[in-house]
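Entry:
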Amino acid sequence: MALKYSKEVEENFMNPKNLGEMKNPSGVGKIGNPACGDIMHLYIKVNSDEVITDIKFKTFGCAAAIATSSMITQMAKGKKVSEAGKIKTDKIAKSLKGLPPIKVHCASMAAQALGLAIEDYEKRKSI
């Protein structure tokens, strides 16, 4: 049975935004889900005002994994780190006009990857 995706999911899968790696990131979040095989790497660049000025991702996975990675980069870019850290699974799924229940874990992984990138940034900042 084929999954039914929203136009927003299809658009972010077919034409992902902020795709790629970043040289000298302020923080990196890496997460993988062995059960489904998805792997996400999220890179953030943060300025002195604590604003995420650039964000990129590399994701190996299904259409939903790529779409949620693309969406979270769009949602976080330009936000203060403290505000971006509040982006959760439900907000990502809502921004994509929904995900099939079996694919909600992809939005959760995207939120976790951003959280890990922010944690990495905080660690690097304190050194």
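The mean pLDDT is 95.
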